[in-house]
Amino acid sequence: MSKVATRFAPSPTGPLHIGGLRTALFNWLYSKNKGGKFYLRIEDTDKERSKEEHKQQIIKSLTWIGIEHDGDEYIQSKKIEDHVNIALELLKKGKAYKCYCTPEEIEEQKKRAKQKKIPYIYNRKWRDAGETEAPKYIKPVIRFKSKIDGSAILKDLVQGDIEIENNTIEDFIILRNDGTPTYNLSASVDDHLMNMTHIIRGDDHKINTFKQIQIYEALNWNIPKFAHIPLIHTIDGKKLSKRDNASTLDDYSKIGILPEALRNYLLRLGWSFEDKEIFSLKESIKYFNLQGIGKSPSKLDMSRILSMNEHYIKNIKEDELFIKLKEYCELFKEKIDLKKEEKIKQSLSFLKNKAKTLEDIYKNSKYIILNEVSFNKEDLKLIDNKSKKIIIDFVNKISNLDTLSKDNLEPIINELIKVNETNFKGVGQPLRIGLTGSKFGPGIYDIILSLDKDDIVKRLTKVGH
User: Fold this and answer.
1) Rounded Cα gap, residues 443 and 409, in angstroms
2) What is the chain's Cα-based Rg?
3) Which of 18, 285, 335, 363 has the most crowded CB, counting CB atoms within 10 A?
């Protein structure tokens, strides 16, 4: 048997959808597991809606999550001539025919089917008609001669055997009357030209697969193996669409989901291996198989994505986490000043505490990153005269210290608690608000030690007076 070859074939008519990304991942992992090849085919024949920016976003998204395709991108629009030639070959072999039905006639057939409450199937009017009967003023479409008798069985590698009656597949159009090929013809020809051995795609393509197999059979081509993956649904059980929030990759990178976490989540979305949850890239390739794919739709669960991301944030090396945070800030927030980088690096152990996303870490780090803190107005109201006195006393006491450490800060805090007849919160909260702008945040010692002494004095003096 020839070496395994799979492909991912998106249309650049919009940003890459999370369902498409999972399909690409499954194809890529299957090829890598089998030591085969994975190709990227850009199906850009919809000239009106296909855009270069969408193509670039698709390629960037795949790279971001760690999927690298073999060879150059296969651009479908460059192969139109091949598709048209195959349609003409099918016509010549008597496996296809010219259909001269007007749009009005087709509309009428659809209307009748609707009235009878039966699925519309083209009535095959021109299937056996001779050329002499052809009207001169109508440009024909070319239809494939689908099988009328018997049934067909698809040996699906995920769904098992699927059987349908052949007469339920209409004589579908392979060439429009403007001479352009349709999806089923183009996809079949491209898969043949690319020597695809396995077609792994969403189970909304099942009917297309039956049509495409008939094209393969009519041309005596080797038929690839097919695997149809159940679709991804929303948490409410509806089919996920591009209009849903968090359906494109950009929605995830904007909030700071790590590519490794999203890849792990998508791997586990509808696929399992024993009771393993966390997979390194190496393990994903090693263990991936089609037998582990479930037959039911999976639900996209944002809380599960966040908890997976939290796991990765917690377990990633801090040097690596800092690089990711830095890149994230430059892309979506603001550049981190070189002078602040070391402070953030040293403080990551507590800044990442309970953080589910890079955005959470950014929010926790804002008081270091920004020179001026913005105050939560409600929290600022908590700074009463007693709090102001504590703040100024604290500033006076640290002014005499050359360096700040937990050892020399603890006695100062304890003394302020005693003198002001309060508790740790009574001292810590005003200092936290003065330094970060909010009563929520890291521990007070962590905050103080993550800032320069000059910054501390400047900020606290501003709220203490």
Assistant:
1) 13
2) 31
3) 18
Give 76's contacts (C-beta < 8 A, 6+ positions apart): 9, 41, 42, 43, 44, 45, 186, 190
Burial class (CB in 10 A: 0-12, 13-18, 19+), 325: buried
Strands (E), 114-179: 141-144, 151-156, 160-165, 173-175
Number of other residues whose CB lies within 10 A of the CB of residue 222: 10
Mean pLDDT of 29-34: 98
Nearest to 9 by CA among 35, 36, 34, 46: 46
Q: Is the pLDDT of residue 243 over 80?
A: no
Q: Which helix (H) or strand (E) holds 298?
A: strand 298-299
Q: What is the pLDDT of residues 108-137, one digit of tens each?
A: 999 998 999 988 889 999 998 877 788 888
CA distance 161 to 167: 18
Reported as a single tens digit per residue, the pLDDT across 310-358 is 999 999 999 999 999 999 999 999 999 998 999 999 999 999 999 999 9
Nearest residue to 325 via CA among 353, 360, 350: 360
Which residues have C-beta within 8 Å of that of residue 327, sequence separation ≥ 6? none
Q: Looking at this protein, which amino acid is placed at residue 49?
A: R
Q: Burial level of 304, CB count in 10 A (0-12/13-18/19+)?
A: middle
Which residue type sits at 411? P
SS3 of residue 245 by DSSP: coil
Structure tokens at 44: 């850009």
Question: Is the Cβ–Cβ distance between 239 and 233 less than 8 Å?
Answer: yes
Name the DSSP class of 181.
Answer: B
Contact 351, 442 (CB under 8 A): yes
**Residue 142 pairs with which residues in a beta bridge?**
98, 175
Beta-strand pair 141-144/96-99: antiparallel
How would you classify the pairing of strands 141-144 and 198-202?
A: unpaired
Tabulate helix, strand, coil % of the chain (nearest 5).
Answer: 50, 10, 35
DSSP 5: E
Torsion angle of the four alpha carbons 230, 234, 237, 238, in this order, in degrees rounded to the nearest 10: -90
pTM of the prediction? Answer: 0.91
Positive or negative, the CA dihedral 442, 422, 459, 401 is: negative
